[in-house]
Write a structure and sequence with these properties.
The protein is an alpha+beta fold and 425 residues long. It is built from nine helices and twelve strands.
Length: 425
């Protein structure tokens, strides 16, 4: 049943056509509700029509129910939206086709005179509406699948500390999720994946590492360049082992934020580290406590490189430049580092090229296999995966000038005062 609450006059010829369609729906709805079965579609069907100077508001709901039961009357608006029509059920369109199909055979194409006959009731028109609904329904299902994939990815990444403590089963699960997302870039647009990602402005900005299938520090261009020096599978395996041992030797350290700042021509990797300091061992003190004092060495290993899009915009060629330490909280050393102490690996590579036979400056390829406005998936030359989340569009490296070079002593004293002494300063 359909109740019209308002209708503006002075319709154009196009508006009469649309009103005729509404009238036919009302007639069909009324006849269907009065039939012996009293059974129609159980979904609300919504229309959005755009007469340029008018709007129509009404209600319509059809469902299986006893005749004596009052019919619910949800709001249904016919709004201006460039003649776009949104359908809540293709089953309803099937019903329209069944009831109108035979009549259309006799009416032919007819004329648009406002009586509901003509093209508005043609089978071809209904087929077109059903196609629109089916496409919309398929897009909605695809969007749900994409959302579920992202949720599973983020949950696993978080629970395993970016993959550092992931079991083999969890790594296999993540590889499956990531592969599905990578595949969607060429088969679907519902996920918002961007083609030719390394040439897209969307890839520029500040990205934090959410998950890695290998050691987190291997997202640095410095370690990618080190891998690119290896020329045989045996050497690559040895390099993997070295990286694993490197992390094991630094197990006392805690890895903080790992990020990449990307501009159109340059990538900067920031790898923040926290290390416990000042051991307090029982061998050197009468106290039996064998831990350490709450002082922490902090700093960020920052490596920078030039990037050039290759492989039709699906990857970068990386040319390593410099490595430096920023934001160190070690007194005296901080001043030396801030004065510009850094390793120029490009100059070192050029020196080796001139003096070592068959050596050339490494230029690893870093592939981006998935990109949208918030998520990026990249792989190194061995296929090891790195998943990043976009924090901002900023392309300037982090400034660590606000970090105090005091080993965290000031924060410790502030905590003691706030919790015990409570001296106002």
């Amino acid at each position: 049943m359909m109740n019209t609450s308002s209708a503006r006059s002075s319709f154009s010829g196009t508006n009469k056509y649309l009103v005729a369609l509404c009238a036919i729906i009302a007639i069909f709805s009324s006849s269907s509700n009065s039939s012996s079965s009293r059974t129609t579609c159980t979904h609300v069907t919504a229309f959005s029509i755009s007469p340029f100077t008018s709007s129509v508001t009404g209600t319509m709901m059809m469902r299986r129910s006893p005749k004596s039961q009052p019919q619910p009357q949800p709001q249904l608006q016919l709004l201006r939206s460039n003649a776009q029509i949104v359908y809540a059920s293709s089953d309803y369109l099937d019903g329209m086709e069944t009831n109108w199909g035979d009549g259309d055979k006799n009416k032919g194409s007819g004329s648009d005179d406002g009586d509901g006959s003509g093209d508005s009731t043609s089978k071809g028109y209904l087929d077109n509406l059903k196609t629109k609904w089916e496409d919309t329904d398929a897009d909605a299902d695809s969007s749900k699948d994409y959302t579920k994939l992202i949720q599973n990815l983020l949950i696993t990444a978080s629970s395993t500390d970016r993959g550092q403590f992931a079991s083999q089963e969890q790594k296999s699960k993540m590889e499956q999720i990531i592969t599905e997302l990578e595949t969607s870039t060429s088969t679907s647009t519902s996920s918002g994946s961007i083609p030719n990602p390394t040439e897209s402005p969307s890839i520029e900005g500040t990205w934090e590492l959410l998950y890695s299938s290998t050691q987190l520090f291997r997202s640095s261009p410095f370690f990618m360049a080190g891998r690119a020096v290896c020329t045989t599978p045996e050497q690559a395996q040895q390099y993997d082992w070295f990286c694993d041992m490197h992390r094991a030797a630094l197990a006392i350290s805690e890895i903080g934020t790992v990020r990449q700042i990307i501009s159109s021509t340059r990538i900067t990797s920031e790898f923040e580290v926290h290390v416990g300091s000042v051991p307090f061992l029982s061998d050197f003190t009468p106290l039996k406590y064998s831990g350490g004092l709450p002082f922490t060495i902090t700093g960020a290993i920052v490596s920078s490189a030039d990037i050039t899009p290759v492989n039709d915009g699906s990857a970068w060629e990386i040319f390593m430049d410099t490595v430096e330490i920023k934001g160190s909280n070690i007194p005296l050393l901080r001043r030396v580092l801030d004065d510009g102490l850094k390793l120029s690996s490009r100059e070192l590579g050029s020196f080796l090229e001139e003096n070592v036979e068959q050596y050339s400056n490494p230029k690893p390829v870093f592939e981006t296999t998935y990109l949208d406005d918030m998520l990026r998936i990249s792989r190194d030359q061995d296929g090891k995966v790195f998943v990043y989340g976009k924090m901002s569009d900023g392309t300037e490296p982090t400034s660590y000038k606000s970090v105090d070079a005091d080993l965290g002593l000031l924060n410790l004293l502030e905590g003691l005062n706030d919790n015990f002494f409570k001296i106002s300063i």
